[in-house]
Amino acid sequence: MEEKKVKPTKKFQLSAGLVLIVSAVITFSIFEFVCGHPSHFMGGDPNNHPLPGDLLGTIYKGGYIVPSIQALLLTVLVLSVERWFAIKKANGTGNLVKFVQNIKASLQTGDIETAQQMCAKQKGSVANVVNSALIKYNEMHHDTNLSKEQKLLTIQKELEEATALELPSLEQNLGLIATATTLGTLLGLLGTVIGMIRSFAALANAGAPDSIALSAGISEALINTAFGIATGAAAVISYNFFTSKIDSITYCIDEVGFSIVQSYSATHK
Fold this sequence. Notes:
By secondary structure, the chain is mostly helical. It has one domain. It is 77% helix and 0% strand. The protein has nine helices and no strands. It has helices spanning 16-35, 55-60, 65-91, 96-109, 112-122, 124-142, 148-166, 174-206, 211-267. The longest helix has 57 residues, at 211-267. The radius of gyration is 28 Å and the shape is rod-shaped. It starts with 15 loop residues before the first helix and ends with a helix.
């Protein structure tokens, strides 16, 4: 009977650079035309202090570093959603842990055909890797030229090649999310320092302490800190969550791969 491989998983992914550019256009537009609208400031002039309790006006006074941080935050959120769909598709249609258990049970009884049927039903990256190894398993079963050790090495090589083909795409865009964990916080601190410098410079030019101007300047500067910390926290949570999911997928592949090799070794001379 002719063996058919499960079709390679279609990868769901977005360009991190494109997402960042679109996010920047959105956040800078909102910053300029919504937060910077004259209705949020005393006397209808964006150069004046924001109206008391007006958050949008306060955000605008935080300076152009604020929309930069917001663009990074929006990028992290969009890429996190994109990675969630990508990894969900890689897991396949059913429960991954149960799938691994069923494959191992079929291997113990030597029922390779059932195991392949389960791969076709499960789909996803793990099923594709396992199915490739099972096809090679059957090929080695009918091969009379190679020694047992050579056959085992061939199966192992097939596992490694299939894994190398499927898994790297799961880490797509995680590099930018990892960068955002530090960059977001640093941009927030930079905006805060610049805001504090401006606040104290304004006080010095006034010639006398102005508690109202000082408190307003500090609140404006801390807007940068707030968005920076939010961006860093979101990026850390997202990165750790998805790397743990990828590690789980890798572990499942390694576990099934080891079972396939052991099963062949135990049942063939």
